[in-house]
Amino acid sequence: MENSASYGEHSPLDKKFEKFQRKVTVCASGGKLCDGWILAVIGVALPLTSTGLDISPTMEGLIGSASLIGLFIGGLVFGWVTDKLGRQKMFLATLAAFLVCSILQFFVTDPTQLFVLRVILGLAVGADYAIAGAFIAEFNSKERRGPGLAGLLVWWYIGFTVAATMSIVLISVMPDYPDLWRVILASSFLPALVMMVLRIGLPESPRWLASKGRMKEAHAIAEQYLDPVTRQDLFKEKIRSLGYSALFSPQYIKKTALTSIFWMAQITPFFAIYIFLPKILQDLHFSSESSWGEIVLYIFLLIGCLVGVSLINRLGRRKLLIYTFIGQAIPLLVLGVWFSDHPAFLVLLCFIVFAFSHAAGSTLQMLYPSEIFPTEIRATGVGFAAGMSRLGAAAGTFLLPIGLALWGTGPVMLIGGIVSLIGLVVSYAWAPETKGMELSQTVSAEVAPSRSQRQA
Length: 456
Prior knowledge:
Subcellular location: Membrane
Oligomer: single chain
Pfam families: Sugar_tr (PF00083)
Helix content: over 70%
Number of helices: 20
CATH superfamily: MFS general substrate transporter like domains
Membrane topology: Multi-pass membrane protein
Number of domains: 1
Largest sheet: none
CATH architecture: Up-down Bundle
Keywords: Membrane, Transmembrane, Transmembrane helix
Shape: globular
Structural class: mainly alpha
Number of strands: 0
Low-confidence stretches: 1-10
Organism: Pseudochelatococcus contaminans
């Protein structure tokens, strides 16, 4: 039988498996859409909360980074919980948390309440990161696994772009509405509600069931939902007893370091810059009369992400990661070294190149850890890498306004470029190529490639 992920003629049986794989991918991606939405609205709403809340600069930094702090903790804890309790049990819980906390943001009366809600939202996001990557990796064929995992970031950028654009439009239409910031923050309940409904009825991962020795259940679900090739590969994977400490064992420590460092190096400058983008553009003398220049950059984020997804199975994981780190570092270094009297077109060009490169490379954030860690610690590995990445992002988001005040925009951009170069070096040294491999093979991929593999 022809592989169900090929692009030729498909039998009705093939189409049944493909339809389910698409449903799993969409449902798993919903958390990323909510994550992007949640982060975008805080960047727009924070300047408006001064009309209703007395927020100090320190508290502004804390609130801006609160969801990232929560994601750090949630990734470290709930990835492990997901590997222990199963994927299905956590899937609805995270969306329920998104829904409730989004609504409660409308009713906050002091900055501390808003900070606590944002941390809880981050906890739910961290849990959802671990679940989503595992679900897509464990239900999809090898041809669809890469684009499916990479596509998670497309949903993140859709959520980020739609929420930011909607918020800017609302501000333009209702500039004098005193509680507009409350409406903007609470708006994330809409995608959370839709995605929670869509997730009802999804089965447990058969790979997770098999890893727990529940073979009868695993066979039954695999027979119903997995295409024959993926089903056969499922039972090739060895069952091992692995716990949290396995991430730091000699066998997996380089994988843990690679996924954590490259993810952190990608998003630390991104989150810091984009949450405070209006102030940075003003400091760089970008003479836009409105916020529409920001929307252009958000659109390039989405375009870059779509390009990254299209290259996952063509260019390969390793080359895409290395090339996009180069594209992320250069514009930040240009803005950092030549930081006075930038022509407006150069500022915009640098941010476009940065946005495009960052977004294309970020498609690997969920893909690499989901592919190179075994089933027993897959969610744990994804959660740990996500948590460590958000630790850097939270630190960058908190410190950026302080750095802007102490040193100015140029040195801050230079630091972002240096962080990107660190990601480039680590990726060149350790990033494996997993293109075209079954999931049982990717967990054995060489993390420190040979010279010939690096040059390939």
